[in-house]
Design brief:
Length: 167
């Protein structure tokens, strides 16, 4: 079942993010990796900044989370993670489909360029990478991240981004 996460889910969201983010260790630039990958304070900041988490729950346990954040004229998909033990079961795809169905805005996703599996996942679900120049502009316009992260990231857009003039 997919459901909105509540304040009671904070510990599980934190656990899922940091469990799943271990895949980045040794893949993303070393100066971008830290332990834990996302601190409790950083997670609280993201929620306070408007990231609404949704969770995939089975038998009373959250197995995956994905956030959405409306920013001006777009929706950002943020912090998409599935527990290591339950990957490759379609959980991420179900969460993504539900979040896409909830918005009529263009959807943008930022992720690490070196996280090829994440890029492939989003491409499989109809997203395309924007040009490097557009990526830099979008990351500065819609995200609050350091320049080093901008250098090492990609942005993927859905078809609504390409058709946004007609919206």
């Amino acid at each position: 079942m997919i459901r909105p996460c509540t304040a009671d889910d904070f510990a599980a969201i934190y656990e899922i993010i940091n469990d799943a983010a271990r895949a980045y260790q040794g893949v993303i630039p070393a100066d971008r990796w830290h332990e834990p990958y996302m601190s409790r304070e950083a997670l609280r900041h993201e929620i306070d900044a408007g990231v609404a988490f949704w969770g995939y729950e089975d038998a009373g346990e959250l197995l995956g989370v994905m956030g959405s954040q409306p920013v001006r004229d777009v929706t950002l998909i943020r912090h998409a993670y599935v527990r290591t033990t339950t990957r490759r079961q379609g959980i991420g795809g179900k969460l993504l489909a539900m979040l896409l169905a909830q918005t009529d805005r263009p959807v943008l996703i930022g992720t690490w360029a070196a996280a090829w599996w994440a890029v492939r996942f989003y491409e499989k679900h109809g997203f395309r990478q924007v040009t490097p120049e557009e990526k830099d502009r979008l990351l500065r316009a819609y995200w609050a991240i350091p320049d080093r992260q901008i250098e090492t990231s990609v942005v993927l857009a859905d078809a609504r981004w390409d058709n946004r003039e007609s919206l």
